[in-house]
Design brief:
Helix content is 36%, strand content 14%. The protein has 363 residues and is α/β, with parallel strands linked by helices. The protein has one domain (32-360): Glycosidases (TIM Barrel, Alpha-Beta Barrel), CATH 3.20.20. The strands form two sheets. Strands 1-2-3-6-7-8-9-10 form an eight-stranded parallel beta barrel, surrounded by five helices. The protein has a two-stranded antiparallel ribbon with strand order 4-5. Helix 2 runs parallel beside helix 3 and helix 9 runs parallel beside helix 12 (353-360). The longest helix has 21 residues, at 3-23. The radius of gyration is 21 Å and the shape is globular. Residues 79-292 form the Glycoside hydrolase family 20 catalytic domain.
Length: 363
């Protein structure tokens, strides 16, 4: 082969490579994630099939399962959901993930999201003394907005007994999932530093939030595990116009400068491709952008992440970790929609989490 022909061939191969990267930038990201509620015990085998046949061929390498109380805790059996996952169920999920090099990360919502609508979840139901706002009673019929500003209950991060329970749950779930990381949620915390709380009242909310992040992170760090959290409470919501859901209206945003830089940030925006990953990356955090069901927004977020990585300085580039597709339903409903087993028109709608997933994660 002449030098000229070799040079032309090499150039063509390089162009083909660049075309592939341009067409599928997500494939080049360090983190290619999927986040969903852990399946119920009866549907573990169906979800293992989904891991084998759908996640693995798409090179998904991080699977976050929102477990919460859907596990047969041995140290605190009083916190189990009914028909919760057994250790044998979890090991099926662990094996399927390991077989395909997928990092499996369990999540339990900590601090906030201790209730939903009119239901108090297991931690505060069993241990009501941990409630940050015991004076706020659960309504017979939930509506938003409401006079109490009730979205979800929180536990008091300064209660002297709360972390003994929380740490036990974290350790047991991480051991069961053989995980090197734990996702603590920590999103949409509206109740924090309540004036009527005898421990938290009058304290700086940013310091309270940062203190809980540090407490959880330090415990995990002792066991060589990472802490992952949603990023919304670390963003300012009023001046930026991001609002009280995707960012903070109660001054927790200053905690971004008070927490360790090895906390992994999952930066979610579902209706607009807000470019807040830049804030986290330039602060020294590793960050992944998290779409949900809007395919146009999700595609823009993939393109943005590719551009961030391309244009960043060498010192910051690897802070832009990638994309994590989120699903905010139970696993069973998602699989029905994904495999078009739903009878309603939603199954074939463009803006569904399964269509967003298919659009962003090509096989």
């Amino acid at each position: 082969m002449t030098l000229q022909r070799f040079t032309i061939l090499a150039l063509l191969m390089l162009l083909a490579n660049l075309h592939t990267v341009a067409q599928k930038p997500l494939a080049t990201f360090p983190t290619r994630g999927f986040c969903i509620a852990a399946p119920k015990a009866a549907n573990v085998d169906a979800f293992v099939k989904f891991i084998n046949e759908e996640l693995a061929p798409r090179q998904v390498n991080v699977l976050i399962l929102r477990v919460d109380f859907n596990y047969q805790f041995e140290q605190h059996p009083e916190l189990r959901d009914s028909a919760a996952l057994s250790k044998a169920d979890v090991k099926k999920l662990v094996k399927a993930s390991k077989d395909h090099g997928i990092r499996l990360i369990p999540q339990i919502n900590l601090l906030g999201h201790q209730s939903w609508a009119g239901t108090v979840y297991n931690l505060l139901r069993v241990y009501p003394q941990f409630d940050e706002t015991p004076h706020v009673k659960m309504p017979a019929k939930y509506a938003w907005p409401n006079a109490d500003g009730l979205y979800c209950k929180s536990y008091c991060p300064l209660h002297p007994d709360v972390h003994a329970v929380v740490f036990s749950m974290m350790d047991e779930i991480c051991d069961a999932f053989e995980s090197t990381a734990f996702h603590a949620g920590m999103d949409e915390v509206f109740y924090l530093g309540d004036d009527k709380c005898p421990r938290c009242g009058g304290r700086d909310k940013a310091e309270l939030y940062a203190g809980e992040v540090r407490t959880l992170r330090d415990h995990l760090h002792e066991k060589n595990r990472e802490l992952w959290i949603w990023g919304d409470r670390l963003l300012e919501g009023k001046i930026t116009g991001l609002g009280m859901w995707e960012a903070s209206h109660n001054n927790t945003h200053r905690a971004i400068d008070l927490i360790p830089k090895d906390v992994m940030i999952c930066d979610w925006h579902y209706e607009r491709p807000d470019k807040t990953a830049v804030i986290f990356a330039n602060k020294g955090f590793k960050v992944a952008t998290c779409p949900w069901r809007n395919t146009t927004v999700g595609a823009a977020q993939v393109a943005d992440m590719a551009a961030f990585r391309r244009d960043a300085t060498p010192e910051v580039k690897e802070n832009y970790q990638g994309i994590i597709q989120t699903v905010w339903s139970d696993a069973e409903s998602f699989l029905k929609g994904y495999y078009a087993k739903k009878d309603d028109a939603k199954a074939n709608a463009e803006n569904t989490p399964w269509n967003c997933f298919r659009t962003l994660f090509a096989k």
